[in-house]
Amino acid sequence: MSGRVLFVDDEANIRRTMEMIHRNAGWETGAAASGDDAIELLTHESFDVIYLDLSMPGRDGMDVLAEIRRTWPDQTVIIFSGQATVERAVEATRLGAFDFLEKDSGKDRILLTSKNALEYASLSRENRRLRERAGGKREFLGAGTAAKAILQQIDQVAPSNARVLVLGESGTGKELIAQAIHDGSKRAGGAFIKVNCAAIPEELIEAELFGSVKGAFTGAVETREGKFQAADGGTIFLDEVGDMSLKVQTKVLRALQEGEVQRVGSDEVLHVDVRVIAATNKDLAGEVAEGRFREDLFYRLNVVPIVSPPLRDRREDIPLLAEAFLAEYCAVNDLPPRTLDPAVVDKLRQYPWPGNVRELRNQVERMVIMSPGPVVGVSDLSAEMQSGVPSVAAGGAGPAPGYDGLPLQEARKRFEKDLIERALEANDWNVSRAADVLGLERTNLHKKMKMLDINRK
After folding, report:
1. What is the pLDDT of residues 422-440, one digit of tens each?
2. Measured between alpha carbons, how far is residue 62 from residues 69, 92, 96, 115, 200 in Å?
3. Are 448 and 420 in contact (CB under 8 A)?
4. Which domains does the chain have, with CATH numbers?
5. How much is the pTM?
6. Segment 166-186, tens digit of pLDDT
7. Rounded to a whole number, what is the distance in angstroms from the first to the last CA of the chain?
């Protein structure tokens, strides 16, 4: 098993020796005398494995490794040094090196390391191929008026360095919008680092964002890089930014204003070049008014606001989204392609989708798994999808119990009232949308509400 290997070393005799060892073993080789030469070579040639000298004039190996990882994150790199230390080996591995090898290692050890690195690179490519087969990178999809407006905003703001605040309910695709902005920017070759501010405990989020030094707090057993450093040269996506404490907000503000961060437990100031995209499902202006969010940080983040609409306001996109998810989950589960019965599409369009696109994705995944044949039918839908009323409506409770023992007409009347009230609650008492969900004309729903004495509480 052999592949293409690149040797980056300022010593010509080292390059020649490594090339000879590998050529005799059937490898194709390339060489570069400096980190800058290697980066230039990588822009138009590809290699399975790179051996990178740690100590070179100008840019050292660690700096070159960091750039390679930012620009070609799947590249397999071995640090090759005559000055190996445990600390440097750990640092190289943390930055993404596959291995750390001393220059006086024997030929057999070198070839074994190259073989292992090549196998690792092959597995990485196969994993990437499988991910692409399963649908590849997810993107913001839509062809309706609302979706087209979002895509136009993305195209306008992406090439700039402007900060963006993405607003919208949970599950509407805020992360996909942020990813699309990064992919369309000049920073697309850099990292896109995601941070869910609501998922990280209050006592850990500062260290997560800015890093920490060994011994800074209980459990800090090593010096760690923060997310802002990891995103240097790229984009950081602060999801659920409204959940950050005021203390952390102050430090984020400094990072935005000065491009500076400090690891927890350290006085060293680190400079970073990061584009910030934030997202929240909260009313940040209201949070500012209540004193829970810094006004100056709000204005720093809210340079270009983009509102991601709920799925109920872009129903024309539901068939397109459902078909895309259907193809994705058939591939993921190694199933033959399937189609949606038109009646299923009608049900999907009528449903209020309190969980938005995320709920639609989950529903399609369930249909793919539960459907026994090539056509997904109404019977493959969940009970709530068939009824058109979400189980989370009205506190998640079903229709009120106590129908047993009632005359049929009275039980039907009570059930109908419960069902209509739940549909209205799920749609914020918008009669038109509730009528769509229930399959009724708006005027008929008004008549039933009057007959059943249904009024907004």
Report:
1. 778 777 788 887 777 776 7
2. 10, 7, 10, 23, 29
3. yes
4. 4-133 (3.40.50.2300), 149-309 (3.40.50.300), 312-387 (1.10.8.60), 393-451 (1.10.10)
5. 0.58
6. 999 988 999 999 999 999 999
7. 73
